[in-house]
Sequence to fold (528 residues):
Amino acid sequence: MAPVPDRSPRSARPRRSRAGGAGATRRTPARREPPWLLIAAVLAVVLALVVLVSSCGGKDDGGDSNSPEANPVPGSATPLGKQALRILRPDTEDRAKDLTRRAEAGFANPLYRLVPGGAVESAARVQRYRSLIEDVAKEADEDPDVLEGIVYLESAGRPDAMASDSIEGAAGLTQIVAGTGTQLLDMNVDTGKSGALTRRITRELRRGNARKVATLRRSRAKVDERFDPKKALEATTRYLKFARGELDDRDDLAVASYHMGVGNLQNLMKAYGKGTVPYVELYFGIDPLGSPKAAALALELNDDSTTYLWRVGAARRIMRLYRDDRPALVREAELQTRKASSEDLLHPVETTKTYDDPDELAKAERSGEVAALPRTALRANGIAIDRSMGELAPRLDQPKTRYRGLRPGALAGLLTIGAAVRALNDDAKPATRLTVTSTVRDKRYQALLGAENVQATRALSQHTTGWAMDISRTYPRGQTAPLFQWTLTRLQALNLIAWVREPTAIHLTFSSAAEKELGGVLKTALGR
Fold:
């Protein structure tokens, strides 16, 4: 929720800072993400400069993100590095709606893959509270769709959800922390009685005594209003009103603060140094090189607070689809949950061209549909090619180079990553090198790999489309790993990439929009 609010069972509930004041800065969220969104925090956290080290040591017409005049870049970056960073630091003034839509799509995958029962079942639970949500929202002059999105994100429509075993933590339909409820939101929360009833409910659930459980839950809702859906919703609207009053009456900032806390959000804007700004500007404006103080503060949050607003938007879209186009939601949920990321949503294998055998792949290479990896250009921008790439090619009577290529848009994305990481690291040459270990494959090669490598997917691999690649998780010492993390997350926020950590590599897939939006980087790198 905010300064006092902590995070809800998984996303955003009202919290209270350890200091206790409504405006106090919160270092550790009073509430915790529910188990089903813990991964969301990992996949979605922006600027969480998490060390990815493993062994050593998911298109728009607005704006030309490749324009040399856009967003000046500090530091000693090369021309290609500056071009890459301009893409990752988009001008938000004329593109706020588009960037918001992209970020909501980029961070939506956990809302399909990690919610109890899946997106359709979760939406059905939330829908049962729609009339109540509308009534509470109308009384408080709030947007019912925003309130509904918070419910989906916080509890997936479960009024008895708890973020942890502690009754003091986030609980209820909107995941409010006990301290926040009593100290900021004027709620009746008797944790002693509530805890005792919760333990009894747990015992009766084990015994399968549904009638007794229902009676105990009604009793608990009287002594702990967080478990009363109406009281919880009303408290959430009070929080939003409070936050709006502290944040220059901005709706977007009020919602963003539900998870981060008002004090933390104010401090983040102060570190950014431009006063109270729209959240889209704050989010896309912060980076490790251009605004290091704000980036460091965001790192201190150590959770998924920075993406909360985008995930509320993604939840709103899920609920809209549930009501207006349920078949589309069912289809999207199926694509979002096939793999550990949204890569099959970016390129549904039923409608995306794949390469069946070496001959098809060779033809694609000759036509330019697949571009060979340009070793010199990649090396100049901090990307090395693993020597073992394509090692199974001789079994198919093919050269290793047959399996060292990408669709031009994916190659542009790889160069963007390399150039951006080097620029963020002040162009330290050897220290920032990333190693690409796998690129395009055909289905015959994939079958050979699957028979020998337990990490190879049994489903149709995106490598056979030419849009996917793997980058080693073994990095040089220094800042390469966290800067790589930041770059991936920013590309995800632009909805240009879906990615996931595997045991030894980062597996990532670029969207088809990358060909147009990142194509300028490829042209510059190849001197065209």
